Amino acid sequence: DCVLFSGQGNHKETSPFLNNTDAVKGNDYYHDRNLALFEEELDIRPKVSSLLSGLVSYTSLSQGTTQEEAESPESSKKTASKKAPSMGTLMGVYLPCLQNIFGVILFLRLTWIVGIAGILQAFLIVLVCCCCTMLTAISMSAIATNGVVPAGGSYFMISRSLGPEFGGAVGLCFYLGTTFAGAMYILGAIEILLTYIVPEAAIFHPTNVNDGASAMLNNMRVYGTVFLTFMALVVFVGVKYVNKFASLFLACVIISILSIYGGVIKSAFEPPGFPICMLGNRTLSRDLFDVCGKTVVENNVTVASKLWELFCNTRNLTIDTCDEYFVQNNVSEIQGIPGVASGLLKDNLWGNYLKKGEILEKAALPSIHAAGKKNNLYLYVSADITSSFMVLVGIFFPSVTGIMAGSNRSGDLKDAQKSIPVGTILAIATTSLVCILSNVVLFGACIEGVVLRDKYGDAVSKNLVIGTLSWPSPWVIVIGSFFSTCGAGLQSLTGAPRLLQAIAKDNIIPFLQVFGHGKANGEPTWALLLTALIAELGILIASLDMVAPILSMFFLMCYLFVNLACAVQTLLRTPNWRPRFKYYHWALSFLGMSICLSLMFISSWYYALVAMVIAGMIYKYIEYQGAEKEWGDGIRGLSLSAARYALLRLEEGPPHTKNWRPQLLVLLKLDEDLHVKYPRLLTFASQLKAGKGLTIVGSVIQGNFLDSYGEAQAAEQTMKNMMEIEKVKGFCQVVVTNKIQDGISHLIQSCGLGGMKHNTVVMGWPYGWRQSEDPRAWKTFIDTIRCSTAAHLALLVPKNVSFYPSNHERFNEGNIDVWWIVHDGGMLMLLPFLLKQHKVWRKCKMRIFTVAQMDDNSIQMKKDLATFLYHLRIEAEVEVVEMQNSDISAYTYERTLMMEQRSQMLRQMRLTKTERQREAQLVKDRNSGLICLGSFYSDEEDEESTVPEKIQMTWTKDKYDSERQNKNNAVENFRELISIKPNKFNVRRMHTAVKLNEAIVARSHDARLVLLNMPGPPKNPGGDENYMEFLEVLTEGLERVLLVRGGGREVITIYS
Questions:
Q1: Which one of 74, 154, 176, 578 is separated from 219 by 20 to 30 angstroms, measured CA to CA?
Q2: pLDDT at residue 83 in the model
Q3: Assigned fold of 658-775
Q4: Which Gene3D superfamilies match (predicted)?
C-alpha cells in the first residue's frame, strides 16, 4: 500500500504527487478510498479515527502529568507504572473540605468569638468569611472546569491563568499557608490534649501562680514537635494511610457536630448542670476550689471554705488578711448553660471586647467596687489577649480555609473537573449554612456570656466550653475534636508537600528543584521534609492565636489571585475560556477579590504588608530568573492592547494554544470602481471576531505604485468605510503590484507588526472560474492556498458568501454542522464556538459529524469523540457517519471524464490562441527581421498586456516549418479528446468528493452553516484545475459552506 497508516498520525507514501501512475500497484492499493482527497497530507493531518483511537491514552494519563510530559516517550513509561487516580467527589473533595472547615477554630475558638463579639458581630464575621470563600470557590470552579487540572491544584490553576511569576508567588504563599495550617491544627490538638484530656501529662509546670501561660507554651512546643514528627512519618509511609484515617477522623467530626445539636435540643427542657461561681459580678476559676461559697458547714460547724482560704490566706473566719473585693461582695452561683429556652439570646447580642488581663464580668449582677490584691488575680477568669473585631477576623478566618483541601489533591482525583466544583461548593454550603452560622446563634442562645468569653473553660472546671453544651457527655466532643484536628493536620501535611513538588517540577524557582524529586511512586519526600521544618517554626510560636492570623494572610493572598485569575479570563474572553461550570461572573470574582483584600488589612495590616512583600519578592525573583515558561496566561492576552510593552512581550514567542485566537487577514477583491465586491466577507469576519483580537483587511491593486498611489489611497478609504459599516475593528492595507499573486504573497508575508501578526487568512471563492478561459481565475486562488500553507497560516474560505447572514439577522434556531474529516489542529471545533458568541449565531446548536471507514469501530469512535468534546468543554451533538467502501459509480467515472476532457480542451484552446498570436507577430516582424519568442503560456499568470520580450535573430526556413507543424498538431489534439481515459487517481478523488457530498447533503442540507475540512491542493501544479472541480463537487447543493484549513498547529486544548 502507498499509505501505511499507523493510527498515530504518521504514514509513509511512496509518491507525494497526484499524477504519478507508477506508484499504483493494484486496484485495492489504498485502504481509505473514501479519503483519497486528503491522502497527500495524512502525515500532518491525520484521520479523526486515528486521533480518537489515541484519545484513550490521552485522557487516561495520570493528571499529575503535564501536556508536555504526556507527549514524551520517557514519561509514558513512567506513567504506565503509576496507579491511575481513583478518588471521587465524596472522598477526594467534600470530606477533606468538611474536615478542615469543621476544624480547630470551630471547637476551640468559635464560642469565645461569639462571647467577645456578640451574636451580631460574630454572625457578620462568619458571614463575610463564608462569602469570601464561596465567591473564591465559584471562581475556582470556573478555572478548574476550564480543562484538565493536574497535580498542584490551586497553584496549577493560578500559574496557568496568570503566568509563572504570579503563579510562583501565590503558589509559595499558599504552600506556606497550608504548612502553617498544619502547625495550627497540631497546636489545637495539643491544646485539647493538655488542657482537657490529660492535664497531668504536662512536662513543664508553673513555678508560681502567674506563670501558667509560659509553662503551657513550652509544653505545646515539646508535644507539638513529637506530634509533627509522628504525622510526618505517617504521611511519608503513604497517602493511603492518611485516607484510611480520614474516614475515622471525619466520623469523629460528624458525631461531634451532631452532639452539639443534640445538646442544644436537650437544653431546651433539661439544661446541663454546669454552675458558674461568681464573686460580685466577676467570674471565678472553678478548678481551684470545690464549693462555691465563703463558708461551709462541717459537723454542724461553720468553717471557712477553700475559696475563703484562697482569698484570705487563712482557715480562720477573720477578714483582717482578706482581699477587700472578696469581703465587700457576695459569692453567687449562676447556670453556665441556661438552655435555648432561657431568653439568653438578647443578652449576648452585643460585643464585649476585653483587654489583656481584664477579668470576665457579668454586668447584670450587683458588684461593689473595691481594690483587690494583685496576687489574687489568678483566682479570676481573665482575658489572655487584647481582643478587637480585627483580631477576631484574623483568628476566625482559618476556620473557612479548608476550601482548597480538595483542589490540592487534584492529582489523585478521578475527574477533577467534576469533583472540585461540586465537592467544594457543597462543603462550603454545608458548613456555612447548616453549622457555622447556626452555631453562632445557638451558642449565643444557650451559653451564658461569661462562659462564652472564657477561652479555656476555667469557669466550668476546665471543661471545653463547647463540650459543656454537647450531649450525652462533654467527652464526646473533646475526643471528637482531638481526632478531628489531628486529621486536619494530616491533610495539611499531605497537601502542602504536593503543592511544593508541583512548583519545583515547573522549574520556575531554580533553588527549589530538589523538592521536585521523591520516592519511586511519586511521593514528595524532600518536599515533606521541608514542610515539616517550616511547620516546626509554627509550632515553636506555640500560640494558636498568633499562628492563625499568619496563615490567614497567606490564604487570603491566594484567594485574591484565584478571583483575579477568573475575572481576567472572563473579561478577556479568550477562545480557550470555556468553563463547564457556568455559574460565575467577573463581577462576583471582583467582589471576592475586594473582600479578600479588605479582610487582609482588617485582620492585620502589618501581616498583610509582610505577605505582599514576600509575594512581591518571589514575583521579582522569578521574573529576574527569566522563567521561560509559556502556559497561555491571561496577562499575555492583555498584551494585545498595551502598545510597545505588549508588542515586545508578544515577540517573546508564539502564543500558547490556550491563547490562540484567529487573528484575521481578510483578502478583499475590489471591482473597477474600487468598491468592495463581497462585503459579506467583512460581515463574517466581524461575527467571528466579536470585537476581540486583530483584524487586517488587505487588497491588491494591479499596476505601477508610482502611477497608482492615489488609487490605492481611495481604495483604502473605501475599505475603511465598509469596515465601519460592518463594524469590523481593525486595520487596512492596500498593496500595488504588477501581478495580483505577488501582491497577495506580500500581504501574507508582511502584514502586522511583531507579535501583532495575523495567523488566519480569509478569502472569497473564485466564482465563475469554470466559465472563464483565463486560468488566472483559479490560479491565484490555489496559489494563495499554497502561500498560506507555506506560512503556516490557517485558511478560511466562505463559499456562497452572499448568502451569509448580515449583522442584523438572527437565527432563532438551526444547526452549525461541523464535518470533521481529518484533524488539522482543532480549528473546526473552535470556529463554531467563536461564532456562537455573536448574537447572529448564538441560538444555533452545534453538531459534529465525523467519518468512519470500514475498519473503524464507529460506536467506539462516537464514545471517544463525546469524551474529547467533554474535555474541550464544547457542547455539541455527535454523529459518526459510516462510509461504505462502495464501488466507483458510473456517474463518478463520467464526471471525472468530463472534467479531464474540459481541462484538455481548455489547455488546447489556450495553446491555439497563443499560436495564432505568435504567427501574427511573425508576419509583422518579418520585414524588420525581429521575431517574438514568447512562451507557450508557460507562466499563465503573465498579464495579457505584458509586452513580450523581443530577441533579435535571423529568420530561417526550418524554424518556419516547425511553427507550421505545431499549428497542424492542434487538429490532432482535438481528436484525442474523444479517446481520453481518466486518470485513476482523479477517479478516486472524484469518488471521495461525490460520496462525501452525498453524506453531507443528506444530513446538513438544512444547516445554517456547514464547516468542512478543505483538502490541500495537489503537490503537482498540473492537477490544479481538477482540484477546483473536486472542491465544487464536494460542496454542491449546500447553501453556506465554510472551507477550513488549519495552519499546522494545535489551536485548542483540553488543559486548563
A1: 176
A2: 55
A3: Rossmann fold (3.40.50)
A4: Amino acid/polyamine transporter I (1.20.1740.10)
